[in-house]
Amino acid sequence: MIGDTGSYEGGKPDATFSFTDEDFFKVATGKMNPQMAFMRGAMKVKGSLSAAQKFTPDIFPKPSKM
């Protein structure tokens, strides 16, 4: 995993995701489906897979127009 990790204030997280910055950007901008990223091995999931399945790109704000 690239980047920093921080403490989770609510206790133990249900699921954690690991991927490169490039793949994260693709998922966050909707250019890569999270399920396809997982199946291709671009995204790793640790923890509850049922919680991880609730992850969708809709949780990210839309990029601002520069």
Amino- and carboxy-terminal Cα gap? 28 Å
The largest beta-sheet arranges its strands as 1-2
Inertia-based shape = globular
Individual helix count: 3
| Average pLDDT metric | 80
Low-confidence stretches: none
Binned strand content: 5-15%
Give a count of the beta strands, DSSP E runs of length 2 or more: 2
Helical residue percent band? 25-40%
What letter string, H or E per element, gives the SSE order?
EHHEH
Question: What are the defining features of this structure?
Answer:
alpha+beta; 66 residues; 3 helices; two-stranded antiparallel sheet
Explain what you see.
- It is a single chain.
- This protein has a domain at 15-56.
- The chain is built from 3 helices and 2 strands, in the order E-H-H-E-H.
- The chain has helices at 21-28, 34-40, 49-52, and strands at residues 15-18, 44-47.
